[in-house]
Amino acid sequence: MLRAQIEPTTLAALVALSGLHENTVREHLSALVGMGLAQRDPLETGERGRPAWLYEATGPDAAAAPEYAGLAAALAAAIHKTTDEPWDPAVAAGEDWGRDLAQARGAAATEQTVARERVQDLLDEMGFEPTSADGHHTVKLTRCPLLEAAHRYPVAVCGVHLGLARGALTEYGADPEGSELLPFAEPGACVLKLGRDGAAGG
């Protein structure tokens, strides 16, 4: 999980994603640091008191950051800081992005189930490691490429990710109405609903 992150990550973010107890995660992180498989650095906040720590994987197996992820994290921070209500602009930005990504992959109108499958394929390419067991209506996102940013700016990051799925669905000719994203809804996963349950057509 630590290797999958594109930026140094706090204990709290890893706890939220894994669903494990904070003490359990802390013990694992301490062991990884002791083995030289991870490093930790203090999170500079400018505030007094004990600092939080940022953890990142080290060594040749540490994941390289996708190019989009650093930019997306910066944009999420900007949306969060420049508006009091970041949800709507974040979703709108994500919808534009999702339509562009679908167009670049040769989007063509199709029926709802196939459109959902194509959106899941797109999310897989982007590193979300999605799984589904109900015809792609409910998708579990078992990895967040922007975990630390999502933990700090959940409204902005999750809004962009929901918008991305909605925009791609639209471009594939499906109805995105009823789509929703439930951050950290299950241990180790966010839950994404692609349109209304039972929606059909194209």
**Largest sheet data:** 4 strands, antiparallel
Low-confidence stretches: none
Instruction: Strand order, main sheet: write it out.
Output: 4-5-7-6
Q: In which range does the helix fraction lie? A: 40-55%
Q: Number of DSSP helices?
A: 7
From the alpha-carbon coordinates, what is the Rg to the nearest angstrom?
18 Å
Strand content: 15-25%
Structural class: alpha+beta
Principal-axis shape equals: globular
| Order of helical and strand elements | EHHEEHHHEEHHEE
Oligomer: single chain
Note the gap between the termini. Answer: 37 Å
Mean pLDDT value: 84
Number of strands: 7
Characterization of this structure:
This protein is α+β, with helices and mostly antiparallel strands. It is built from 7 helices and 7 strands. The chain has a 4-stranded antiparallel β-sheet. A 3-stranded antiparallel β-sheet has the order 1-3-2. Strand 6 and strand 7 (189-193) form a beta hairpin. Helix 1 (11-18) packs across helix 2 and helix 3 packs across helix 7 (154-171). The longest helix is centred in the middle third of the chain and has 18 residues, at 87-104. It is globular, with a radius of gyration of 18 Å. It starts with 8 loop residues before the first strand and ends in a 9-residue tail after the last strand. The relative contact order is 0.17.
